[in-house]
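BUG: 3D viewer hangs when loading the predicted structure for this chain

Environment: internal workstation, default settings.
Expected: structure renders.
Actual: progress bar stalls at 90%.

Input used:
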Amino acid sequence: MSERFAPEVIVEIKSRTIKVPKEIENCTGILVMGKLIKSLLYSTDVSIIANHNADAIIAVYPFTPQLYINDAILDVASVPVFVGVGGGATRGLRSANIALQAELHGAYGVVVNAPMDNENIQLIRSRVDIPIVATIISKYDDYHGKIKAGAKILNISGGAETADLVKLIRKDYPEFPIIATGGPTKQSIIDTIEAGANAITYTPPSQAEIFGEVMEKYREAKDEQQIKE
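Structure tokens produced before the viewer hung:
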């Protein structure tokens, strides 16, 4: 038997599971509190968060962070969760308090959006022990300052320029932990990993898309049954 062979045990009732692209396995991963994380599922949908094979969850959403949303995600997730604590409209003591609550409720890290300034990152750093993940969306972002302020991981989300942005930052920080969006294709994931990303975020299909595929299969099965009858 090959040493790299990994037997798979499938449970029928959980067979409909979101699987992250296999290409993500090629990155090094990031060790966070003893857990090796290569893939992060980008979602706040609790039904999706309960049915996937990613190593972790990154839960960032375009609304003011709310404790009951974070608690719901943390309660459902069976893997480490990195929760958003603001950066745009939400900052200051409110972000710091949300970050502390997230840590006390079991989060593995807190994510600050790109507009979060360095002073606010320092404030959050003074309140929590878990890693701060700072989002970088452009080469003009002050990633040097964010690292100096206390960010322990960078989350690169530069759209089509993500791989180039990762490569740029990697030149300055050869060993700093970098998470990056993988993009829409297998090749974009490969390019981002080769640029230096340690872990990849994956955006799953929406619940509506998944349900649409399931319903189509149900219709096909019903049509076949009618033909036989």
